[in-house]
Design brief:
Layout: H1 3-36, E1 42-44, E2 52-54, H2 57-81, H3 85-100, H4 102-106, H5 112-134
Helix pairs in contact: 1-2, 1-5, 2-3, 3-5
Length: about 140
């Protein structure tokens, strides 16, 4: 077995565990918000809308997993196409995280507890994924 093959498997394992961690973080935040603090998580229906929709536990968990997998896919693509994959991916990932905070922070129709819970959910998923995916990523 070659060293690059072993490194690739190790990197894939770390990223798979980070994806799982993102799902677990989303579940934990949702459960804490709902069961401990009594916050019914809701998401804005669209920009400028004061209408909201319930954020269910399965939806939160699946969304965290999908976002992590999309990030992994983008990083894999960048690793094939750029010597600066880590830097480029990190900039995109942090940018997406920052943009994702706009809805919970500025949308109408959300309670303060809901805003805090959604922000923690987004930050928790980002904290699970971004540092882990950077491990082993190609640098310049």
């Amino acid at each position: 077995m070659s060293t690059s093959s072993e490194a690739g498997r190790g990197t894939a394992r770390v990223r798979a565990l980070a994806t799982l961690a993102a799902v677990v973080v989303a579940i934990l935040v949702w459960v804490l918000a709902d069961s401990v603090f009594g916050v019914e998580l809701r998401t804005p229906d669209g920009p400028g809308s004061s209408e909201t929709s319930e954020l269910t536990l399965p939806t939160a968990a699946v969304a965290a997993g999908v976002v992590a997998l999309l990030g992994w896919g983008l990083l894999a693509l960048l690793e094939r196409r750029s010597a600066r994959a880590r830097t480029l991916w990190t900039r995109v990932a942090v940018g997406v995280l920052v943009l994702s905070l706009f809805a919970p922070l500025f949308a109408q129709g959300l309670s303060a507890g809901n805003r805090v819970s959604l922000v923690l959910l987004h930050l928790g998923v980002g904290a699970a994924v971004i540092p882990a995916f950077r491990l082993g990523a190609r640098t310049s």
